[in-house]
Amino acid sequence: MHSPTTPPGWFIARLHLGDERGVAAAAAVVNAALGHGVLTVDRLLRHMRDDERVQFLAAFPQGSMTPVGAALAQVIDDEEYRAFIAPMPQGILSAAPPSADGRRVGILSTMAVVPSVRRRGLGTALALQRTAWLRERCTEAYAMVWLRDRPGRADGVLKAAGWEPVTTVRRYWEQASVVGDCHCHRCGSPCRCDGLLMRLPPAPTGTSEPTGTPEWAAWSPGATGHR
């Protein structure tokens, strides 16, 4: 998949149900960056059965089938929405399920790029393509950025893609890391990392997506996993 945002020498492809090996390799990129068990192949394949609700992208060097980046975006149902807002204090997002008023809520669920190829625009390209996909399908969309004590956090690349910060949620992944099989690279289990909730506002009429290329760090909001 080529677009003006994909840097030269790389390509981004959508993964499909029939490519279990590719799905596993892309999931491994995410797990290596974010923590064991963030994505599992079985869970991914279940979600990917609905092409209209879920898309999983992988980034590759030209001429190679070994992924060096991956990003997952999805339109979530009522149960997934409740799981997404459960760690948040009341009042940050609506407690009403999307089906109650016909909302279509999207989540930019997980994204990672291997350390050796960061700062080359791949994270930006993945973010912009997933942002455009969510804009086409959703009435509102969110991301939960993993906050860590290092420069170049993912909120920079999301701000360049048009996302806005909402609030910091303390220990957002703590409960998920205790009841699931995920292990934070920084904390282990339980995870004590904070998350920055970001939202995607409606695109202004007559404008195009931003194309900035700031530093990018691995991130995920945890709708389908730990971080």
Summarize the amount of helix as a percent range: 25-40%
Q: Looking at the structure, what is the overall shape?
A: globular
Task: State the end-to-end distance.
Answer: 26 Å
pLDDT < 50 runs, ≥5 residues: 207-227
Strand tally: 9
What would you call the quaternary organization? single chain
Q: Radius of gyration from the CA trace?
A: 16 Å
Largest sheet: 7 strands, mixed
Description:
It is built from 7 helices and 9 strands, in the order E-H-E-H-E-E-H-H-E-H-E-H-E-H-E-E. The protein is α+β, with helices and mostly antiparallel strands. A 7-stranded mixed β-sheet has the order 1-3-4-5-6-9-7, with helices on both faces. The chain has a two-stranded antiparallel ribbon with strand order 2-8. Helix 5 (122-137) links the parallel strand 5 (105-113) and strand 6. The radius of gyration is 16 Å and the shape is globular.
Secondary-structure map with pairings?
Blueprint lengths: L9 E5 L5 H15 E2 L4 H7 L6 E8 L7 E8 L1 H8 L12 H4 L3 E9 L8 H16 L2 E7 L8 H6 L3 E6 L4 H6 L3 E2 L10 E5 L28
Parallel strand pairs: 5-6
Antiparallel strand pairs: 1-3, 2-8, 3-4, 4-5, 6-9, 7-9
Main traits of this protein?
227 residues, seven-stranded mixed beta sheet, two-stranded antiparallel sheet, 9 strands
